[in-house]
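During data preparation, a discrete fold description was generated, and the record follows.
___
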Amino acid sequence: MAGSSSAQTWLTPEAHERLRAELAGLLRAEAADSGPEDPDRYVEARHRRARIRHLRDLVHHAVVGEDPPDDGIAEPGMVLTVRYDDDGTTETFLLGLGDDAGSADLEVYSPHSPLGLALGGARRGERRSYRVPSGGTVRVTLLDAAPYGRHRERAAEFAEG
């Protein structure tokens, strides 16, 4: 990814730590690289530097583990439950960064994905639609939007008792 966005990105503490560790590893590899001697190493070094720039921007501008307001509005850092209107199935997922796989029990959808873009700013009970790559339209209803921290607390209570 070229350039820097300088936009804030919501991350779980676990994802933030994973990204910091990845950045540290890439920086060590960069420092140890004596310079590309062949075209493959040159390309690898360019990709590594681009990833370093991206991670630095991401880690620097991250909002880490800070829950958004518990106002029922879909935004990054919220665990959303939606109903797919065509077949009635429901799905619960974290609206966050793709690197945010901080919870094994929860899928993570990017706010920039078609579903994430459609749901951004939606309130409980609101219907939204989005187009899929095949050209079809998917209609969803937002059933619930709860901060990630509240979801984790509920999951811990359920596991205990």
User: Anything to note?
Assistant: The first strand starts at residue 9 and ends at 11. DSSP finds four helices and seven strands in the chain. Confidence is low (pLDDT under 50) at residues 1-6.
